[in-house]
Each structure stands twice: as structure tokens, then as C-alpha cells.
TrEMBL record:
Portion of the full sequence shown: 337 to 626 of 679
Similarity field: Belongs to the cation transport ATPase (P-type) (TC 3.A.3) family. Type IB subfamily.
Protein's name in the database: P-type Cu(+) transporter
Organism for this UniProt entry: Exobacillus caeni
Compartments (UniProt record): Cell membrane
Amino acid sequence: AAPLVVARSTALAAKKGLLIRNRASFEGARNLDAIVFDKTGTLTEGKFGITDIKVSDGFEEDEVVMLAASLEAQSEHPIARGIFEEAENRSIKLVEPDEFQSITGKGLQGRVDEIRVMVVSPGYMADENIKYDTETFKQLSGEGKTVVFVLIENKLAAMFALADKVRDSSKDAMQRLKVLKIRAMMLTGDNKQVANWVADQLDLDEVYAEVLPHEKADKIKQVKQEGLKVAMTGDGVNDAPALANADLGVAVGAGTDVAMETADVILVKSNPKDVVSIIDLSKATYKKMI
Ligand code: ADP
Ligand code: MG
């Protein structure tokens, strides 16, 4: 009777919007100790809009938006979309960059109209020792806003603050995990202030910010070495190495193809609460078989 139960659970899972790609991992879901979540696009909606622009002296706002957005039009990152939409709202015409390159986990750089442009993270600014107004930065990120810096010819031209929203379903998911006594962790490439702001709203057990993509995978390995069975939930290209290393890799369905190809289970509805449904269904399926 066992195979029938399993077959039925696959159909039931599909109905709930869970696509099971790896049976063995799904079976193991009933014994998970910890779940690690990516922030942007997973616990949050991943829809950024620009809320504040602080232009440096000598730079013109529309010009900075044009240069930054022309570059970001080449990127798939949620931050990129937010900056691109700002240009659209201002009816600013964009230019095809002459050169474009992403800086993994830190932003991007290129050449627009012969001008050297970069849009980068606070981490990049620290690495390169570029000064900026830290008071304004702290204030904006304390409000949960993600701040990126636009550099034009290596000079700080503007600070852009972008706001995202925590998914309501993330709150429900965290409450269920507490009841199940499963440790909830967050890994993000975003800065500490924003990470803490999200973690406070969700009452997470552990938070790791300013994490580079390969460090996400390392963190998963470390948790496994502690003897815990761990799941990773994420949506981005950056999350793929971590998804591959976890006992259970869960991709959020609205995410990138790379994440989905690497995952053991795909959440069609992009709802973090469905991670709990995987556990429930795994328990229900494999209990019947023993
Ligand atoms: P997350 O883990 O939250 O998905 P990422 O690792 O994708 O974050 O990005 C980390 C940080 O790198 C972002 O918070 C941002 O500061 C910077 N960054 C990444 N991609 C871009 C981009 N296209 N434009 C500007 N900044 C970016
Ligand atoms: Mg993400």
C-alpha cells in the first residue's frame, strides 16, 4: 500500500502548489530541525520601490536616475526593477550601456554614454573605503529600507533608498515553525539594519546579514555540521549553491530558473507558509508507511 500513499501525496502536494522534484528530500522534511530563509523575494515580496534619493552636490537627480536605471535595465535583481521603474515614472529615456558587468552580491558596473557608472551595496563602499553620510544611511536603513549607492566616475553621486514589504504569509509561517520547534533563520546579502528590521517583525531565531552567495552555502554546511537537518528556502541565483547544499532545498516559484532547477521542492504560490505544508505532508505521508 505504501507506493499508493506516496503517489497520492504527490497529487495532493501538486494541488497545494508544491512541486516535488526530489522524493528522498521530501521524505526527510518530516525530521527538519532548522529552516533557513533568504530575505529578499522570499520572506519579503521582493518588489522594491524607491522612497528616497539623496543626491550629492554637483549632480542632477534625473541624470543620476537615467545613468543608474540604464545600467539596472540589464539586471534581473529586484533592486534593479525598482530603479528601472523610477526612471519609467519620471518618463526618463534610457540608454543602452556600452559595457555592463555585475559585481556578485554587491551590485553592478558599466559604461553609459561613455560615463563610468556603478550601483553598489554598503559592503562595496566599505571594501573600497568610499565615504558617505552614515547618519542618513543609518536613518534610512533603520526604517527597513535597502540603500544602494550610485557612483559616477568613481564619485558618490547619490544614495537611493528602496522599500520592500514583509509578506503577511511569512508571519504565519514563523508562528507555525515556533509551534513545531523548528529553528527559523534568515540569510541575506542586504545590510544588518534592514535584516534586523525584518527579523524583528518576524521574530526570527537567527539572522545573518551581508552574506555573499558562496557564504550562504557555507552557512548551510555549518548548520549541518552541528548535526541539524536543515532546509533552505530562496528565490535567487544567489541562493542556488545553498539550495543545493541543504537537506531540503525549496525554491520560491516566482524566482529565477537557476533556483528552481536546483531545488528539491518548488513553491508554486511563492508563499513561505507552504514550507510548513511540506513538513505536514511529509509527516502525513511517511507515517502511514511505517
Ligand atoms: P539578497 O540576499 O537579499 O537576495 P543579494 O545577495 O542579491 O541580496 O544582494 C546583496 C546586496 O548587493 C543588495 O542588498 C544590494 O546592496 C547589492 N546589489 C545586488 N544586486 C544589485 C543590483 N542589481 N543593483 C544594485 N545593488 C545590488
Ligand atoms: Mg533573494
